[in-house]
Amino acid sequence: MKKRVLALLMCVLLVATMAVGCGEKKDNKDDSKATTADSSSDSSKDLITIGFSQVGAESDWRVANTESMKAALSEENGFKLIFADAQQKQENQTKAVRDFISQEVDVIVIAPVTETGWETVLGEAKDAGIPVIIVDRMIDVSDDSLYSCWVGSDFKQEGVDAANWLVEYMNKQGTGDAEHNVVVLQGTIGSSAEIGRTKGFDETIAGFTNYNVLEEQTGEFTQAKGQEVMEAFLKKYDNIDVVIAQNDNMAFGAIDALKAAGKTPGKDVVIVSFDAVKAAFDSMIAGDMNVSVECNPLHGPRVAELAKKLMAGETVEKIQYVEEGVYPAETAAQELPNRQY
Ligand code: GYE
Q: Is 221 touching ligand 1 by the criterion CB < 6 Å?
């Protein structure tokens, strides 16, 4: 019995000494080291974990977008980024978002492949209390509380700009009243970039009855598919004098197809494109492309700022458009050195 009491007393003493030891440590010199070590592990705990579901790597634009996001959502900037490439398939994005939820990330960022099909999985993110930032393309949901905010381009305006540029160009060439036969290489069907550019262009050009849109077909935003679809158009129609390519990479494919068919893109056939990536400026300088309507992919810094604000409980603007211009061939040589992507 006595032994037990003694053992108990010793235990109490030991615990008390340890407690005092801890208390003392707070004030002694070693404390600075402990604080530094603690704060560094704390700071790694403080990183905001972002799960980013990216569309894929289908175009120069997309690659520039990924680079911008990775650079801005870096550890130095206070983030831990989990990056998932959906390879242009929305079902991969749904899976990625579910993985992010089970990993309990702080914020989910999605560049959606298509606009529809988001309700269920975003409902799951909402139930888990994880804020969602949509970037680049938009989503079509009836309940807009399923995402915190969106940042991207006004794709319909880009389509309007393309049509207006074309009409003005033909007027300047002195062929404003002539018949013009247009083919359109569309992006991924159901993506905001395709929907907006198609609508903006079609609605505007419909106001000019001498412009005939012969056919619109998807080239999936890739160079290879753009070339393939253009080859098929060339077999079917011998009177094409305008190509609207809904991104630069499809335009590059179309240019190759036209050259292979003995045509002179940029002259016999006017090439109107979107994105304004560096390679498009090279193509304009070479005389192959006539214009590229800008679409800015450098969303990383805006997304980083939004994520920090959301984590701090601040309110953010729901919809944010980025500013964009139109770059015709005659400006290309002067503009190329200023291009960031
Ligand atoms: O135009 C295209 C890319 O959604 C704006 O996706 C983006 C589009 C861009 O593949 O090149």
A: yes
Q: 292 in ligand 1 pocket by Cβ < 6 Å?
A: no
Residue 216: name the closest of 246, 192, 186, 245 by CA. Answer: 186
Task: Sheet containing 132-136: give its strands across.
Answer: 79-85, 48-54, 107-110, 132-136, 149-152, 319-321
Q: Whose CA is nearest to atom 5 of ligand 1?
A: 193
- Of all protein residues, the one whose alpha carbon is nearest to atom 7 of ligand 1 is 193
Q: Where are the alpha helices (DSSP H) in the chain?
A: 2-25, 30-46, 60-72, 90-102, 119-127, 155-173, 192-205, 223-236, 248-260, 278-285, 300-311, 329-335
| Closest by Cα among 294, 282, 296 to 337 | 282
- What is the rounded distance in angstroms from the CA atom of residue 234 to the CA atom of residue 253? 13
Is the Cβ–Cβ distance between 119 and 289 less than 8 Å? no
DSSP conformation class of 322: P
pLDDT in tens, 271-311: 999 999 999 999 999 999 999 999 999 999 999 999 999 99
Please state the φ and ψ torsions of residue 50, each to the nearest 5 degrees: -115, 130
Q: Which residue segments constitute the domains of the chain, with CATH numbers given?
A: 46-153+298-323 (3.40.50.2300), 155-295 (3.40.50.2300)
Token representation of residue 3: 């032994």
CB–CB of 57/66 below 8 Å?
yes
Ligand 1 in reach of 197 Cβ (< 6 A): no
pTM of this structure: 0.87
Cβ-count burial 81-114 (b if 16+ within 10 Å, e if not): bbebbbebebebbbebbeebbeeebbbbbbbbbb
pLDDT single digits (tens) 84-102:
999 999 999 999 999 999 9
What residues have CB less than 8 Å from 16, skipping those under 6 apart?
none
